[in-house]
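Researcher: Final request for today, and then I'll write up notes for the group meeting. The sequence and the SMILES for magnesium ion follow.
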Amino acid sequence: MKEKNKMEKFDWRNKLFDSLSFPSLILSPEMEVVAANSRFLARYRLTKEQAVGKKCYSILYGFDKPCDAATCPLLKVVRTKEGTSSTNKTRGPDGEDIYEDRVCSPIFDGNGDIRYILTSIRDITKIKLLEIESHRSRDFLEKIIESSASAIIVADMKGVILFMNESARKLFGYTTKVAVGQSIAEYLYTPGGARSIMKKLRSREYGGVGKLHTTDMTIITSTGKSIPVEMTAAIIYENGKEIATMGIYNDLRPRIKIEKKLREAEKIKLAQSNKMASLGQLAAGVAHEINNPLSGILIDASLIMEGLEDENPLKEDIKNIIEDTNRCKDIVKNLLAYSRQVEIKEETLDMNAVIEQTFLLLKNHALLRNITIQKEFSDGMLLFRGDKNQLIQVFTNLIINSAQAIKDAGTITIKTDRDKAKGKIYVEISDTGCGIPKDVLPKIFDPFFTTKEEGKGTGLGLGTVQGIIEKHGGKIRVKQTSPKGTTFQITLPLFMVSKNTLV
Ligand SMILES: Nc1ncnc2c1ncn2[C@@H]1O[C@H](COP(=O)(O)OP(=O)(O)OP(=O)(O)O)[C@@H](O)[C@H]1O
Ligand SMILES: [Mg+2]
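Model: Predicted protein-magnesium ion complex:
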């Protein structure tokens, strides 16, 4: 009996309201707080006395007049007699952003009129912040995809375009408005192309199921133009189900254009080198045939010269014959050098020693009389594999060229260096000569190209030098040239005694 009384006294209605796990208020239609549950009082840091009897806008927002009637959920409930929910962004007690979901439900009296309104406030800040973060990352990803230089298209499994980035719109010639939402995926390829891509995507052989490794394809633009592209594709799955396909395309036209140009340049180069090779053979043949008669002329002319009296007027003529014949012999010598550059007798040489030997041979050369020679040799030996005589010829030609470029007096500098890591030897020959004009520069390595006055140069020097250096696995180039002088640079492979040891 005692137990029963206890049960009857238990005010479950009040307890029910107070136990609601969301901060809740019971409001009168006049916006007055009739009751506030414990959660509400705790959330707004109020006592019951501070809340009950106050206006909702005063305790919720600190306003002294009602909120905007158009957006007030309470007035909406009164107007429509239906429950309503809205999301509000407010400030928490410590000034932090708070997102709240506010649910207002009408409580009717026996006549169907609204007596009270139950307002529950749910803090959805955590969910909202996650949502904002997820939007932000989605926007960021979209921006990345949109700004990709590769064209990207996403279509659903029925071929309806879901997305086209800017590069795709440009490549395929569509606007988002025209393409997105349209079932046009199969028209983006030559007939059967789309089906073949899907077949490959579903097979294991082209990068695994759902993937298509780089493949060359032809796409069709909105105007019907065919464009060669390189594409990769993938199927997008959701819970193991195919939901979309994605294609990434790169226009192959610029690459094809460059490759064509390279092929043409290669062809021209080959034709040029064939021409040079036959020219070399011809030169060698001619030189060989001319050499012997020239020697004969020289001997006979010298004998005649010796037999003539000093005052004989013929002496001057014979002297000219001897000079011109010597000149012809020089030309023959150059021709033979030019044509013989192909065979090299290899031995291990030290670059600094080869250059020293060249200077020794040139010691008394008339051209070097007013020229200061400056040597800037690297410390230690610069070993390389090569043909000593041919390398001496290289440096002789370059030094003579430099000397010829210097009018009266000047300096020729020879600098040697090495790069162990790259396995290279560098030799630089610089002069304080006249420099090489811009229009002459592209021709200097051509055989028989010379700017020297007639009878002074055959134009075979640099062609021979280049041939020898290239046969030694090296390169020669004009590093710099100006009216103040020129620097030629030679690069040759550094000889490595063993894999890890450089001498
Ligand atoms: N150091 C240099 N300074 C200025 N011009 C140069 C220099 N070296 C070469 N040239 C230019 O390059 C041309 C070609 O040189 P190359 O050595 O092949 O022939 P050449 O010196 O004219 O004749 P050859 O060497 O057969 O006697 C020269 O005529 C000259 O115009
Ligand atoms: Mg020369």
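Model: The two ends are 112 Å apart (CA to CA). The longest helix spans residues 253-307.
Researcher: Thanks, that's everything.
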